[in-house]
């Protein structure tokens, strides 16, 4: 089978990368923009919480189905054609969502959006890996981290402000002109950087991958709402697991797999992927628990809760390029160890927050936590990808993106379950104690219904806070695992990659 020679560009195509950056930024931003608007959409279209949640769940499922297949698309089609198709789908979905006359149209529009955005991140990562030599990838991937981490962090704040002042449709109206301009620039300015191969798509692999990753994502994402004993939850998890095992076994037997699992034989890639999975699980603790704490327990408005997270997003945006340059100079281990220690300390302090913790304290803790995270995610991922031969870059980027999606869903489900269970147990304990106190009080019979309601609310707030504190403590322990693994990181030298590529390309190998 013929394969074009893989070479690093003598001069990186900065114009092309800028276009890809903008496309990826609006695509990722769009994932988190809609979350805060779900109540308004429920009211307008008169749908329940289960139905409206599909706007997020469906988006995630399409990503889970298409991201594993992105390795095939990147190798089979030119960068320009693939990005234009992806951006056109995203733009069409955004337009349809903006004018949606019914909930079904809005849901379909979100699915079309997701089909476009699923390809953008792996494509951008692959172009970056191809366009820059190993010794300069840190700075390049640091800029990529600016997109990957800052966009979802800014989303809630921007969304909160827009929802407070305009209709939820403004979320799409804002993105649409940017998407159209990006599409126009792409048609004229994009060129091909990554090599193409004449490979065929294995339909059975695509089906098994879709059922496997889609089933796991749906099952774990639904567990928090439906409960683990729901047949739809454990049924889809079991089916997804069986399909995923079949998919992996099939890929290992194929000469040209849709997703190459043999890349895990490279130790630094395997280690970096494991650390990234652990960090993704831990990172979701703050993303899930903080909104519950500040809005449900503290009664802080959605706008102010979004502003609470904004300094952290700004810090991550500033730090991503800096961290990339530090990675090129010092490697991933030093950055990861320092960043994880900061993350562990701040996460532990989150496990100690109370009912009256100052807003400024929460802002500082969250910002420091994001500062620590910014030193870990991209350096660890880049170090792992650096060990892969260039022809395996599409598989490496697809694998990273897929596993982050899956681990995020699993982490969310587990953490929500832990919080709910601890909250329930604590609420029963506090309620029993309150009943004993009331029985001992001679004037208990004269207590008003309002006072009883206040006591019940206080019990629920204290119980939920206890559940959140305990879950943050579990998240701290999870992050400690990542810290231990980080000490085993070794820097991948440019000549090591060259040697592996030479070995791979020897005839008869």
UniProtKB/TrEMBL annotation:
It is found in: Cell membrane. It holds the Pfam family MFS_1. The keyword Transport applies. Keywords: Cell membrane, Membrane, Transmembrane, Transmembrane helix, Transport. Its main location: membrane. The chain crosses the membrane at residues 12-34, 54-75, 82-106, 112-132, 144-163, 169-188, 200-219, 231-249, 269-294, 306-327, 334-351, 357-378, 468-489. The keyword Transmembrane applies. SUPFAM superfamilies: MFS general substrate transporter. Residues 16-494 form the Major facilitator superfamily (MFS) profile domain. It is a multi-pass membrane protein. Coiled coil: none annotated. InterPro entries: EmrB-like, MFS, MFS_dom, MFS_trans_sf. Belongs to the major facilitator superfamily. EmrB family. This is DHA2 family efflux MFS transporter permease subunit. It comes from Lysinibacillus pakistanensis.
């Amino acid at each position: 089978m013929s394969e074009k020679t893989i070479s690093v560009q003598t001069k990186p195509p900065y114009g092309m990368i800028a276009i890809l950056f903008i496309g990826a930024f609006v695509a990722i931003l769009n994932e988190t923009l809609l979350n805060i608007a779900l109540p308004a959409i429920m009211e307008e279209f008169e749908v329940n919480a289960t139905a409206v949640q599909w706007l997020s769940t469906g988006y995630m499922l399409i990503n889970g189905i298409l991201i594993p297949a992105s390795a095939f698309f990147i190798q089979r089609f030119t960068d320009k054609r693939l990005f234009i198709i992806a951006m056109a789908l995203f733009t069409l979905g955004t337009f349809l969502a903006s004018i949606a006359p019914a909930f079904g149209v809005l849901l379909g529009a979100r699915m079309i959006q997701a089909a476009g955005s699923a390809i953008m991140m792996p494509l951008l990562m692959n172009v970056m890996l191809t366009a820059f030599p190993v010794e300069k990838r840190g700075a390049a991937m640091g800029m990529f981290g600016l997109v990957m981490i800052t966009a979802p962090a800014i989303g809630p704040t921007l969304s909160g402000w827009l929802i407070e002042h305009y209709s939820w449709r403004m979320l799409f109206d804002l993105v649409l002109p940017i998407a159209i301009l990006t599409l126009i620039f792409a048609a004229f300015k994009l060129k091909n950087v990554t090599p193409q191969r004449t490979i065929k798509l294995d339909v059975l692999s695509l089906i098994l991958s879709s059922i496997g990753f889609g089933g796991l994502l749906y099952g774990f994402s639904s567990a928090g709402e439906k409960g683990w004993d729901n047949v739809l939850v454990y049924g889809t998890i079991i089916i997804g697991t069986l399909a995923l095992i079949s998919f992996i076994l099939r890929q290992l037997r194929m000469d040209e797999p849709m997703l190459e699992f043999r890349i895990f034989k490279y130790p630094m890639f395997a280690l970096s992927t494991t650390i990234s999975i652990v960090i993704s699980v831990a990172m979701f603790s703050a993303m899930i628990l903080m909104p519950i704490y500040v809005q449900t327990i503290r009664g802080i408005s959605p706008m102010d809760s979004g502003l609470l997270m904004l300094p952290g997003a700004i810090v991550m945006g500033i730090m991503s390029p800096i961290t990339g340059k530090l990675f090129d100079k010092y490697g991933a281990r030093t950055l990861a160890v320092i960043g994880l220690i900061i993350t562990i300390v701040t996460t532990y302090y989150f496990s100690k927050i109370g009912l009256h913790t100052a807003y400024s304290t929460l802002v500082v803790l969250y910002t420091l936590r994001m500062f620590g995270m910014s030193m870990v995610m991209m350096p660890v991922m880049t170090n792992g990808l650096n060990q892969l031969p260039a022809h395996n870059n599409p598989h490496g980027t697809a694998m990273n993106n897929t596993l982050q999606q899956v681990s995020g869903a699993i982490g969310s489900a587990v953490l929500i379950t832990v919080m709910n269970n601890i909250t329930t147990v604590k609420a029963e304990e506090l309620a029993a104690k309150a009943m004993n106190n009331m029985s001992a009080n001679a004037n208990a019979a004269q207590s008003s219904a309002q006072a009883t309601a206040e006591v019940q609310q206080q019990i629920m707030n204290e119980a939920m806070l206890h559940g959140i504190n305990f879950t943050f403590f579990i998240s701290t322990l999870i992050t400690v695992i990542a810290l231990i693994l980080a000490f085993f990181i070794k820097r991948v030298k440019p000549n090591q990659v060259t040697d592996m590529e030479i070995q791979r390309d020897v005839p008869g190998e």
